[in-house]
Amino acid sequence: MDIFTIAVWIITAGFLIFSFVKDKSKTKEALKSALGMGKGMLISILSIIFAIGLLLTIFTPESIAAFVEKQNVLVATISAAILGTVTLVPAFIAFPLVGTLISGGVGIIPSVAFLTTLTMVGVVTFPLEIKAFGKKFTFVRNGLSFIFAIVIALVMGVII
Amino acid sequence: MTKVIKKIRENLFLVFIILCYAVILIIKPQTGFDAVKNSGYYIKEMLMIMPVIFVLTALLDIWVPKQTIMKYLGQESKFKGIFLSFALGAISAGPVYAAFPICIMLHKKGASIRNIVIILSSWAVIKIPMLINELKFLGPKFMLVRWVLTVFAILIFSWIASKIVKDEDLPKKIKEVKTGLSINKDACMGCTLCTQEYKELFEMSNKKAIIKEHSFEPDKERLKKAIDRCPVNAIEFGEE
Fold first, then answer.
1. pLDDT, tens digit (0-9, with 9 covering 90-100), for B50-80
2. CB-based contact, B20 to chain A, within 8 Å
3. Contacts of residue B228 in chain A, CB cutoff 8 Å?
4. Does the distance separating the beta carbons of B171 and A50 come in below 8 Å?
């Protein structure tokens, strides 16, 4: 384990003890619900991880990087943003995945575009959103999120 | 037998992945082993950080008074409302569609379109436990820069959205007051908490909670507890 992970564990343990001292039954509830959340998501998370493992073996990060490099930055970024829009990967797998891609040599700009649309724009949740908020709201929100995901990515490319 | 079919249907994606692996392990064993090894890396990383994220999310959920935030959000539309919207999104648990019913409720109570866009967006991208994850895998500079840029972006495009979309554009459902017990299927994220709390009344079907056939009068205390524990407020109970 790296130092960072150890630190997070220690801080969380600290919060947990503090919470336990303050309210025993409430904390037990919290732990139970944490376990429930984890159990509920475990199978879908494992399936996605094995899918990613397979994809990254067939298309290695290096080959993806080489492919992306040959494209125009804007085209690559928009494609990455579209890819992020249509796929459904839980955020906490997305971060190590993007980490692997970046260390494999994939540029920051397309990687950030992918990461941002992945969480903020959702084709899969589209029908649900339309049902809740109506077509206009859904199209405007997702459209703006998509455009700004690309803007965020481009600005990040300049800063980092 | 039907049980097996049901299980397969519920986990179609997993079955598909297992089949892919089986095929690859037969055709190209080496590639198959590499793929398992690659997946192993992610599983190891996930196991190291996931329990902490879940525990932190649950602790935030019980100690930060969400109800209070929601109470003020409806009335405040200026700076404070914007801040509260960001806060609500950043501390909440669950996928973004879990935020839909909460936002509908807030909109009815007077929250502006702009604040609803802010809640949905920050719910999706700037969750506090997720920031820890980002810090770990992508480094402090990456996390910080992306976080600041995202907050600014949300501030700008929520303003644009509020200029285009008006309150009247949202579907007006005059909700009939339902009596009895119901579960909002769109909101349920299958966390199984209600089934743990009141297993005689709730059960899981196709990864969603449903109400069991029952002939008894539900115990008010236990039902209330189950309703309160639902992280997405999907259980509704209208008294006659």
1. 888 888 888 887 787 777 777 777 665 578 8
2. yes
3. none
4. no
**Are the beta carbons of A44 and B10 closer than 8 angstroms?**
no
User: For every residue of A57-108, which 3-state class applies, written as one string?
Assistant: HHCCHHHHHHHHHHCCHHHHHHHHHHHHHHCCCCHHHHHHHHHHHHHCCCCH
Domains within chain B, CATH numbers bracketed:
63-169 (no CATH), 180-238 (3.30.70.20)
pTM of the model: 0.79
Q: CB-based contact (8 Å) between B229 and chain A?
A: yes
Phi and psi for B178 in degrees, rounded to 5?
A: -75, 140
| Residue numbers of B between 142 and 161 with CB closer than 8 Å to A | 142, 145-146, 149-150, 153-154, 156-157, 160-161
The residues in B 86-105 lying below 8 A from A, measured between CB atoms, are 93, 95-97, 100-101, 103-104
d(CA B14, CA B100): 27
Does the beta carbon of B231 lie under 8 angstroms from any beta carbon of chain A? yes
Q: Tokens 């009596």 appear where?
A: B179
Please determine, for the modelled complex, whether the ipTM score is greater than 0.90.
no
Alpha-carbon distances of B84 from A59, A62, B71, B119, rounded to whole Å: 43, 43, 10, 9
CA B48-B54-B55 angle, to 5 degrees, is: 95
